[in-house]
Amino acid sequence: MARNVDVAIIGGGIAGFSAALTSARAGWKTLVIAGGIPGGQLTSIEKVEGVPGFPDGVAGYDLGPTTQEQADSAGAEIMMANCAAMEAAGERWIIRSDGDDVSARAVIVATGTAFAKLGVDGEERLTGKGVSDCASCDGPLLRGKTAVVVGGGDSALQEALTLAEHLSKVIVLARGRALTAQKNYQDRVRVNAKIEVRAQATVTAIIGDDAVSHARVKDLAAGTETDLPASAVFAFIGLVPNTSLVRGVATLDGSGRIAVDAGMRSNARGICAAGNVRQLSPHRAAGAIGDGAAAAMSVDRYLRTGEWR
């Protein structure tokens, strides 16, 4: 027998818990199916900036649990399980998981994204041995060493700044001629003596026996390659949306994200999306919080009136 709820929220990040808070406060029986660690990708970020109410920023591993506690206090239930499939059953949706199956009148998908891989030799073999995507986790273990950060966006520079608090040198490799991160991060990187930025460069291989010892770096302008001594490589070259669950259920855009309207509603009746998994996401914590609330409000209207889009 499936567990019956009004609203099922798939994903335990800030978008999911924001949706759960709004949905539970509206009086609906709300269940968050939170796979992995509650808080999602934010738990690996030392300081989340740009969130109203936190002028000095807030640690992701604090923000996630705080939002979860609010949703829990409002009456939302939380189930630690991973979802495997979703299918229509009349006017309800059945969600298959490695815990209980869930039957819901409406679903909010807030499954977020995963970091894209470089896809180079040595990356998979040395993951956890110097190849990482969590500066706050591994930075303290690399004290006094050199690391390479691949990418020129917000995540890359944010993690480079975190690493610089512990390491002696951080080398940022940006594929383009210029960084693409927001100006605030660029300004802080520019004045940090521990951080070096190299434009038009990338990693083509990660070298080491039992741990990372070098990164093979290609100068994209000259076409030459050199082996750069480094103890770690962090790749932040983009995000891959976690949408396999809804593929064939809701329309995806060209990037694989869920296509939604201004109310976060997909073309599948009763399914909303929130956070980085939705089309045109701003990829900001504040945006994910707003998405979750907007999706829950659209679901509230749907459950009360039957109107969709």
Short description:
23% of the residues lie in helices and 28% in strands. The protein has six helices and 17 strands. Helix 1 (14-25) packs parallel to helix 2 (60-74).
Structure description:
Helix 1 (14-25) runs parallel beside helix 2 (60-74). Helix content is 23%, strand content 28%. It is α/β, with parallel strands linked by helices and 309 residues long.
- Catalogue the unreliable spans: none
Q: Please outline the major beta sheet.
A: 7 strands, mixed
DSSP E strands, number: 17
Question: What is the count of DSSP helices, taking H or I runs of 4+ residues?
Answer: 6
State the distance separating the first and last CA atoms. 31 Å
Rg calculated over all Cα atoms: 21 Å
Which structural class do the helices and strands define? alpha/beta
Binned, the helix content reads 10-25%
What general form does the structure show? elongated
In terms of topology, how is this protein built?
Blueprint: E1 3-10, H1 14-25, E2 30-33, H2 60-74, E3 77-79, E4 83-89, E5 92-97, E6 102-109, E7 113-115, E8 131-132, H3 135-138, E9 146-150, H4 154-164, E10 169-174, H5 183-190, E11 195-199, E12 201-207, E13 214-219, E14 225-229, E15 232-235, E16 239-241, E17 271-273, H6 285-305
Parallel strand pairs: 1-2, 1-6, 2-3, 6-17, 8-15, 9-10, 9-15, 10-11
Antiparallel strand pairs: 4-5, 5-6, 7-16, 12-13, 13-14
Helix pairs in contact: 1-2, 1-6, 4-5
